Amino acid sequence: MYFPFLTATLTDQVTGLPVPNQPILFKAGSNVLGIANTDAQGVARVNETLTLTLLNHGYEASFAGAVTPTAVLSPSSDQAGVVEP
Length: 85
Description:
With 85 residues, this protein is mainly β. The chain has a single domain (2-80), classed as Immunoglobulins (Immunoglobulin-like, Sandwich). It is 0% helix and 46% strand. The protein is built from no helices and ten strands. The protein has strands at 2-3, 6-9, 23-28, 31-37, 43-46, 50-51, 59-63, 66-67, 72-73, 76-80. The strands form four sheets. The chain has a four-stranded antiparallel β-sheet with strand order 4-3-7-10, with no helix packed on it. A two-stranded antiparallel ribbon has the order 1-6. The protein has a two-stranded antiparallel ribbon with strand order 2-5. The chain is elongated.
């Protein structure tokens, strides 16, 4: 199986609003799959063709944290399983 993209959404836990223009690191185990910046809706997408065997235990999306002019954003990460398209 091949999957065209992985996604992650970054949301401010205080306001509930999406956090744009922040880098998200995508990994499967120790394999880095890519880094993508969040869009205006807070969604980051890695557009790669990946095999199911690489993703058989899902993937992790992590945010290193950042300081912006209006907020201090804490690091966070989450894991997701892969759903066949």
